[in-house]
Structure formats: structure tokens, C-alpha cells
Amino acid sequence: MKTKHLIDIKDFSKKEIDNLIKVANDIIENREKYSHKCDGKILATLFFEPSTRTRLSFESAMLRLGGKVLGFSESSSSSTAKGETLGDTIRVVGGYADIIAMRHPKEGAPTVAIKNSIVPIINAGDGGHNHPTQTLTDLFTINREKKRLDNLTIGLCGDLKFGRTVHSLITAMMRYKNIKFVLISPKELKLPDYLKELLDNQKIEYIETNNIEEYMKDIDILYMTRVQKERFFNEEDYLRLKDYYILTKEKLKTAKKDLTILHPLPRVTEIAKEVDNDKRAKYFEQAYNGVYIRMALILKLLEEK
Ligand code: NCD
């Protein structure tokens, strides 16, 4: 059988995503039942780019399943620094581990990796392109909060150009019924055209604005993002745009009572601390949820293997 990977969120059908959500919910209810499911298995985390949550939540997920982890958290401590190709690294690590989670600054790197891999590869972020496991975390959190993934107006705010979590989330949500997007960004950080074309082709409603308050009253999910400093070509532009949005209590004045505020984290200045104790702020729950959905994902990919 062909090895299953997760490179793009579309690699998983809606049904498969539903199942992951079911398993993740069951893990939360019955942790003990899962604590030896991966005995004897090894996860490698190959992180060529910085991370806190994604890498540690993958490691925590595997440890909570009874498995073990190995890997590196910066490319300078791997043989990449000596000039080794990604393909060779993956080929070798495939002999050391049963499953690989990798993050890479180059868009498309995971696609190169799967060509050289005998074990499942999980894309834990490739440049400004995709971040499918953050999207699974987001879908899981939305489902826990709203009990549905259909009939939602989703506001995405901040760096829609370089924010890979935004790109994957839009790609995923596009498949559900009656979804509308409010795309809130400065003109320099608008959503890439290829995604807008997809929305147009599928006749999905979206509005672009640079004003965070304009459609606040209509939004069910407000997805805040950080301006992606590391993807800017010059510092001046970054400095000009980095504090463009700061979500405050005042800006939430017209928001729905049951709004859900998400953020993939790390937060810099785009959400004021005062918002943290608003009961609609769910970004820390979202980070916790990431472990359980990654546990479900590891189980699924190892099963398929
Ligand atoms: C995101 C990422 O790496 O793209 N972080 C994460 O994985 N939770 C978002 C970001 O870095 O801004």
C-alpha cells in the first residue's frame, strides 16, 4: 500500500478530518486508552526553522502515545550545515524513525521529502505556503467551540500574504457549506491571488478590507495572525506594518457574544493582553488542542503505513 503523508490539508478528505476530530475528542475523554498505542514507535522532528508549539506538541503527542522522539530544532545543528541535501537527510532518517514531522523555510520542501521517504511525512510548515497540522488544530478547536464546521463567517486578520496558517485554513474551510470569509489586511499583506482565484472559481463569498471593525458584527471566528517578520525582504516594511492591527476590548465592542477568537501563536502585539481574559479568547485552548489532534494524526498515519 502507498504510504500516506500530510503535506497539504487537501491530502485528507472531509471524512478523514471528521474522523481525526472524533479520535482527538475521544483521546481527551479517555487518555489512558491511548497511552501505549505507539509503544516501540519513533517520531523524528526535523525542524529547519524555529518553532515552539508545533515541535513540542508533536513531541508531546508521540510521548503521550507511548512512543519516543528524536530530531533537531535548527538546521545549523544538522548535516544541512555541511551541505547535505534534504532528500539525503530524509532517506537516512527514514531508517531511524517510523514517522517524520518536518518544518522547512522553503515552499514545497515536503514534496521533495516524500519522494525520498519510506515513512509518512508530516508537513509542519513550509515557508509562507502551508501549515496543515495547524489547520487541523484550528478545525478541531472551531468544532469544539461551535459544534460545526459549516455555516460560519470567518474573519482572518493580519498577514494574509505570508501567513501559511491562513492559506491552509482557507483551503480547508472552503470545502464546508455556507462559509464566508472576511479578509482583513493592509494592502501590502493581502491574500495571494492563487487563493482568491480558488474562492472565485468555487463562488465562495469573501470581502477584503483593511478595517478590522467594519465587519466585526458579522464574524463567528476571528483568526488573528502575526506579521511574518522572517518573510519580509526589508526591515522598513516590517516595521511599518507590524503594529497595523492590535485587537483590543474596544475593537470587540460590536462583536458577537459567541465569537471565537483564535491565533496560531506566537503572538507579538496583534492581540492586547487585556483580551486574554475575555471568554471569547480561545487561542490558548487552541494550542492545547494541538497535542490531541496531532496524536490522532500520528495514529492514523502509522495505521495506514
Ligand atoms: C505559526 C507558523 O509557524 O506558521 N505558528 C505555529 O505553528 N503555531 C504562526 C506564526 O509563526 O506566526
Which terms summarize this structure?
single chain, 305 residues, alpha/beta, four-stranded parallel sheet, 10 helices, binds N-carbamoyl-L-aspartate
Characterise the protein shown here.
- 36% of the residues lie in helices and 15% in strands.
- The chain has ten helices and nine strands.
- A five-stranded parallel β-sheet has the order 7-6-5-8-9. It has a four-stranded parallel β-sheet with strand order 2-1-3-4, sandwiched between helices.
- Helix 3 (53-64) crosses helix 10 and helix 4 (86-93) crosses helix 5 (109-115).
- It is globular, with a radius of gyration of 19 Å.
- The chain starts with 13 loop residues before the first helix and ends with a helix.
- The relative contact order is 0.16.
- The model has no long low-confidence stretch (mean pLDDT 96).
- The structure holds N-carbamoyl-L-aspartate.
Q: What fraction of residues sit in β-strands?
A: 15-25%
Enumerate how many helices there are, as a single number.
10
Low-confidence stretches: none
Shape: globular
In whole angstroms, how far apart are the ends?
A: 8 Å
Small molecules (ligands, ions, cofactors) in the structure: N-carbamoyl-L-aspartate
**What is the helix content?**
25-40%
How do the strands line up in the largest sheet? 7-6-5-8-9
Order of helices and strands: HHEHEHEHEHEHEHEEHEH
Quantity of strands, as a count: 9
Structural class: alpha/beta
Sheet with the most strands, sense and barrel status: 5 strands, parallel
